[in-house]
Write a structure and sequence with these properties.
Elements: H1 18-39, H2 43-66, H3 72-97, H4 104-126, E1 135-137, H5 141-157, H6 167-180, E2 185-187, H7 200-215, H8 217-243, H9 253-257
Antiparallel strand pairs: 1-2
Helix pairs in contact: 1-2, 1-3, 2-3, 2-5, 3-4, 3-5, 4-6, 5-6, 5-8, 7-8
Length: 261
């Protein structure tokens, strides 16, 4: 009996692209190091490691596209790395820093964050090329992890010491988890072209923002990440409000009555 070929649809390609996968590995390393730091109680180091992982995660995809080295292997490896760096790492950090005080609810909410992050990544992988690339369907998992990380940093920036066993942390982690698996649309920034010509004042504005970020990095980065996580729901509420009859000029009661004599 003749043995069937193992790969009937074509010969499997050997080898991987080194450069983009090195950045993905560095991102994975930062996420793993964050877990180690959380276990040691070094929460500021853990939070910074997650932010470093987010920067490296943003670079690996751009480098792969710029060098034409994208591959299915790289996409799958990137998703697995994201689950560790932006799912497991912030969940462990949040639990050891705050949520352990809530007993069963604390670790259940931490697990929900990891689960929703995994579901978010799986849904993103199967929706590539289906939905508009200018928006994300649900809060991206690096964005949710960045909110948790910058929340820890701003706590110590404002003079906090030790753990922060507050109900606000439990609610925030829960809401971020639900945002990830929601159908709320978030701007992806993928249509921004930094290599194109821009107005002069745009460059001045960018420089001013950078100066403010350098002056107060913890406060500004937390403001940006928290603002982005809320931008989707705010935009959704704004669009729903525009559809209400009372918000339209031609549909309002005063417009239907006509001019008053």
């Amino acid at each position: 009996m003749k043995e069937r070929p193992r790969f009937p649809k074509g010969k499997m390609k050997k080898g991987i692209y080194v450069l983009p996968n090195l950045f993905t590995t560095a991102s994975l390393f930062s996420g793993f190091y964050s877990i180690i730091a959380s276990m040691k109680g070094q929460y500021e180091v853990a939070a910074i490691s997650i932010l470093v992982a987010a920067v490296l995660d943003a670079l690996d995809g751009r480098i792969a596209r710029m060098t034409n080295t994208t591959s299915k292997f790289g996409a799958e490896y990137d998703s697995l790395s994201d689950l560790v760096s932006f799912g497991v790492a912030p969940a462990i950090m949040a639990y050891t820093w705050s949520l352990f005080a809530f007993g069963r609810w604390g670790w259940l909410v931490s697990f929900l964050f990891v689960t929703c992050g995994a579901l978010r990544l799986a849904r993103f992988n199967i929706q590539i090329g289906i939905i508009d690339s200018r928006v994300f369907n649900g809060l991206p998992i690096p964005g949710a992890a960045a909110v948790v990380a910058t929340g820890v940093l701003i706590y110590y920036k404002l003079g906090g010491v030790g753990h922060f066993n507050h109900l606000l942390v439990l609610i925030s982690v829960l809401v971020l988890a639900l945002f990830m698996v929601s159908n709320i649309k978030y701007y992806s920034f993928k249509d921004l072209n930094f290599f194109a010509r821009k107005p002069f004042m745009s460059f001045v504005l960018i420089v001013c923002i950078l100066i403010i970020v350098v002056a107060e990095p913890q406060i500004m980065i937390f403001t940006f990440t928290a603002g982005y996580s809320l931008s989707g729901p705010v935009w959704l509420i704004f669009k729903l409000a525009k559809k209400l009859p009372g918000m339209k000029g031609n549909g309002s009661p005063a417009a239907k009555q006509g001019p008053v004599s």
